[in-house]
Design brief:
The chain has six helices and six strands. The chain has 182 residues and is of the alpha+beta class. Strand 3 and strand 4 form a beta hairpin. Helix 1 packs across helix 2, helix 1 packs across helix 3 and helix 2 packs antiparallel against helix 3. It is globular, with a radius of gyration of 17 Å.
Length: 182
Amino acid sequence: MTAPERSHLSGKALKVYDRMLERVQSRLHDLQETSMQTLEDEIRKAVEFEYELEEMTREEADLLGAYLQRDLEHLMHFVDETGEGLGEWLQLDIALLEHQLADRLLSVADKTLVDTLELRQKLENEEAGHYISGEVATAGMFQCLNCGHMRCLTATSHLEPCDACGSHYYERVTSRWPKREE
């Protein structure tokens, strides 16, 4: 996606993502049993609804649907694995301390080494749970896969390149998901 396309998308995308999330949440609340299939169906319906409003292209609506599905599936897995709630998943309360510490540590990092690590991660990390700058994601903590720098989103936003190293690759940070081997 080029810069003009991204800026064209950015004005509507965040509001549309939140509307889609609200629509899915409302529909799931009315159902007695929720499964991954139900979640996927409701996301598909939300994408179709937004597309029919003619505010976005098919590709934009589908992309936002994919972002929404990724975030909701991650949350569902986290809650299932840990029994914890949304607060633990978002990890917003410790964000400021981690951000300051990461900034200090990375200020002495070798730029060449950081670039090499970013390239290696780009080649190795093609996982669905990873995020790339420019993507839309809901609130939470994201850690740069290159340098460990933390980025805190307090609302649905576009992920920007890492402030510390310029990397474009992140993963969502939760306190206990995925489950670590002991």
